[in-house]
Amino acid sequence: MDICEAASFEREKINRHPWELARIEVVKNFLTPIIAQKPATTILDLGCGDVFVAQQLAYQYPIATFHCVDIAFTPEIISTISEPVKNLPISLYSSTQELNNSISNKVDVVLLLDVIEHIEDEITFLKELNQSGLIDNNTKIIITVPAFQSLFSNHDVYLKHFRRYNIALLNNHLQQAGFESKKTGYFFISLLFLRIIQKLLQGNKTVDTEKGIGAYQSKGWIDTFMVNTLYFDFLIGKFFSVLGIKLPGLSCFSICQQQPS
What is the C-alpha separation between 139 and 216, in angstroms, rounded? Predict the structure, then answer.
C-alpha cells in the first residue's frame, strides 16, 4: 500500500485489504510467464510503498531479485521496513538515481502498481524512466492504474490521485513517453459496479472522512472469500480478452516495452 495509507508497517497478510491481496495474485499472473523464462529475474518495484507486494512476490519467486524504490522513503522508514525483509532478496532505495549507482545490469521487469495516477506530469516521469539507463528494449513494464475518470471521487482526492484512466488514455500517454503496449485490459469487473454505487451515494461527504486500505480490519474467512472471488473475476476478464472482448473493470493495466528504435 502507499506510505500515506499505512497505519503501521504490518508485514503479515492479516488486516491487509482483500483488494490489495487480490491485486498481488493478478500481478503474479502477469509475472509467472516472464519469470518462467528467466527465474533469476531482476524486478524494480517503482513506487513500492511499504514493500508488502515485493515481500509476497519474493516468497513466490525466491530466485528473483527485487529493487524497491519510493520517494517517500526516509532513512527511518527504510530502517523500519528493511528489518522484516532482511533475509529476502529485497533492497530499498529512495530514488532511481540511487539505484542506478548501485547496479550495473538492466532490470528485467518494472512494476508500476497504481503509481502514475499520483504524478501530475506522468508522461515526463515515464520518459525519465525510459531514459534512466535502468531498462532496455527487453524490459517488461507492468502498469496498473484506477480506471475511468467518470468514477473520480473523494476517495481519489484522499489518495492524491490526479486522474483515472481508460485503455486509450493509458496507451496514449505511454506512447508519448516512448513505450509500446503489448497487452492492455481491465480487471475487477465486480468492483466497478460497487464503485459506481459508492459514488452515487457519496453525496457531500468530505475528504476527511475517507479512509485508505491501511485502516482495514480483517474479516477472517470473508477476506479469503473476497480475494478468491476477485481473482476469479480477473480470470473471467482474461478469458473474454482471449476472445477479443475487453470487459470493463475498476482497474486498468498495460504490459509494455520500449518502442523499437
Answer: 35
In three-state secondary structure terms, 7 is coil
Largest CA distance in the chain: 52
Nearest to 254 by CA among 151, 168, 156, 163: 168
Write out pLDDT tens, residues 50-79. 999 999 999 999 999 999 999 999 999 999
DSSP assignment of 170-231 equals HHHHHHHTTEEEEEEEEE-HHHHHHHHHHHHHHTT--GGG---GGG----THHHHHHHHHHH
The tens digit of pLDDT for each residue in 189-216 reads 999 999 998 888 876 665 555 555 666 7
Could you tell me the pTM of the whole model? 0.91
Q: pLDDT tens digits, residue range 133-190?
A: 999 999 999 999 999 999 998 889 989 999 999 999 999 999 999 999 999 999 999 9
Please state, as a whole number, how many other Cβ atoms lie within 10 Å of the Cβ of residue 69: 21
Residues 20 and 23: their CA atoms lie apart, in Å, by: 5
First-to-last alpha carbon distance for the chain, in angstroms, is 36
| Cα–Cα nearest to 247, from 104, 160, 135, 148 | 148
For 41, the grid coordinates are: 529475474
Place of cell 532478496: 89
Residues 6+ apart with CB under 8 A from 5: 49, 159, 212, 213, 214, 215
Q: Which amino acid is at 83?
A: E
What local confidence, expressed as pLDDT, does residue 183 receive?
96
What distance in Å separates the CA atoms of residue 72 and residue 99, rounded to the nearest whole number? 15
Pairing of strands 65-69, 90-93: parallel
